[in-house]
Amino acid sequence: MKFERSQSQILRQRLEEFPRFMIVVAGPRQVGKTTLVRQVLQGYAGFFVAADQPLERSSLPSEGQVSLVASIGNDGNASTAQWLIQCWTRARAMARTLRDGQRFVLAIDEIQKVPRWSEIVKGLWDADRAAALNLHVVLLGSSPWLMQQGLSESLAGRYELIPMGHWSYTEVQTAFDFSLDEYLYFGGYPGGAALIQDESRWRSYVRGALIHPNIEKDILQMVRVDKPALLKNLFELGCSYSGQIISYTKLMGQLQDAGNTVTLAHYLDLLSRAGLLSGLSKYAGKQHRQRASSPKLNVLNTALISALSGYDFAAARADRSHWGRLVESAVGAHLCNTAYDNCRVQYWRESPDEVDFIVSDGDRLLAIEVKSGATAMTPRGLGVFTGKYRHARQLVVGTGGIALPEFLAYPARHWLE
Predict the structure, then answer these.
(1) pLDDT, tens digit, for every residue of 225-236?
(2) How many C-beta neighbours within 10 Å does residue 80 have?
(3) What backbone phi and psi angles, to 5 degrees, belong to 299?
(4) pLDDT digit string, tens, across residues 102-142
(5) Degrees (nearest 5) of the Cα angle 310, 314, 318?
(6) Are 87 and 106 in contact (CB under 8 A)?
(7) Which structural domains are found in the chain, ordered by start?
């Protein structure tokens, strides 16, 4: 039995309804968006088109089948507006041949590769709604900010989002039988799971199939970046400093041609949107103070630390300091990756006291301290913070508190309740 992520059930539920909204499946590269949609579409009449694949003609699928249609009538050139319209037109024709109650699904991968895609999709979708056509449309893309730009500019009110984040410990344990230590070191990229016995090969995969495309294709080719070398250096530095609070001044001191704090903050935002590296702000209860704070750097998948570090698996486990940073980074990544909607993840520090993570949602507030050492003493920072913010709850993850596997089994909002 093939493993399916929880979003599969959500997608199936949407496809069982009459198509009131388009369905957008969005998330970082290599988290299984395409695989998930293909798995679900096996039970429906429909076809899957990919804007970034080699272009060759394919026949129409028969009822109840899914067919990869890499191109319709564009003769090997890059996907264009005409290509998108032709794909949609063929899907309409198929949808009209089905019996009452049957649904046809058009899934379009890498939609952001089509110029002016959101404007075209808006016109086609509105025409289908006017005709009450029973055609579901599923959109996928690996460039989160370009997807969001198109969705917010042209398609507001016309879609429902199914977010897909990085794989959790529970998922990789179930799908690939990872131990907790393997998850902490190798992270949660499903494509690399089969390679962990050959660490050199695994490291090459993460660098070549994940890091390089994320930066070179999804950021530098899609968004204006005046200093590409700075962006790359910031990412690498951020991986080495993951789990640490570092001022923009210190960052500029360690980066060549670092520009100013505004540039660094913007580049951190781009890296975060790409699912690579986040710069958590300080919790202060006042927005302007949060924006001015030094960021706490945290990778969004610990594979990124291990792929760029000088440690192999055995050496990483033997170095307690490095392993402690991996554990804290894994907790931070889990919180960031599961904190949807209005749930926020930050940190708190008022020297000499500090709390690793602050999770908030409206009036609910949770202070989290991560402990990977042998001492079970409650950290002083938790008491100071809850004394200052009396409605806050506190939680220790690891030694003396909630076991790490249990914590990683639930999303951020669970621990606020």
Answers:
(1) 888 899 999 999
(2) 17
(3) -65, 155
(4) 789 999 998 888 888 899 999 999 999 999 999 999 999 86
(5) 90
(6) yes
(7) 7-163 (3.40.50.300), 169-416 (no CATH)
User: Residue 73: is its pLDDT beyond 50?
Assistant: no
Report how far apart the first and last C-alpha atoms of the chain are (Å, whole number): 34
Q: What is the DSSP letter of 198?
A: S
Give phi and psi for 352, each to the nearest 5.
-95, 10
* DSSP letter (8 states) at residue 351: T
Q: Which amino acid is at 240?
A: S
Q: What is the rounded radius of gyration, in angstroms, for the C-alpha atoms of the chain? A: 23
**Residues 385/394, Cβ–Cβ less than 8 Å:** yes
pLDDT above 70: residue 76:
no
pLDDT, average across residues 267-274: 91
Q: Is the pLDDT of residue 52 over 80?
A: no
The alpha-helical segments, DSSP class H, found in 98-227 are: 117-130, 144-154, 169-176, 180-186, 199-205, 212-213
Pairing verdict, β 135-141 and 364-371: unpaired
Range in 74-78, 81-85, 169-173 with the lowest mean pLDDT? 74-78
Look-up of token digits 């024709």: 93
Q: How far, CA to CA in Å, does 63 sit from each of 46, 88, 90? A: 8, 17, 14
- Tell me the two tokens of residue 267: 């580049």
Contact 27, 144 (CB under 8 A): yes
Q: Are 353 and 385 in contact (CB under 8 A)?
A: yes
> Alpha carbon 278 to chain centroid distance?
11
Tell me: pLDDT of 277 over 90. Answer: yes
Query: What percent of the chain is modeled with pLDDT above 70?
Result: 89
φ/ψ region of 416 (left if φ > 0, alpha if ψ in -120 to 50, else beta) reads alpha
Q: How do strand 104-109 and strand 45-50 relate by DSSP bridges?
A: parallel
